[in-house]
Amino acid sequence: MKVNVHAVNFSIDRKLVGFVQARMDKLEKYYDRVVFSDVFFKVDNTSEKTNKIAEIKINVPGDEFIVKKQCKTFEEAVELAADSMQRLLVKRKQKVRAST
């Protein structure tokens, strides 16, 4: 799966990009018709510790799913967002199977 990683107003580490790629590749086993995905990283400008935001956007034929999570670390946010995205993709797969 083609994964585009974007960091808003900062630069990201290669380890984080590798982590994201590995985690997104796992999603492909739940729904194999994913065209591409975008992952956006943002830092919220607050004094709270949970200021790291990860937003995953996945494009499938005929639809687009967006999940946004905010946590203490980018890795944790990606994990939570990927888990939510996994549930969405499984639902989509069941819906497509039911209609055929």
From TrEMBL:
It comes from the Bacteria. NCBIfam families: yfiA (TIGR00741). It holds the Pfam family Ribosomal_S30AE. This is Ribosome-associated translation inhibitor RaiA. InterPro entries: RHF-like, RHF/RaiA. It comes from Flavobacterium litorale.
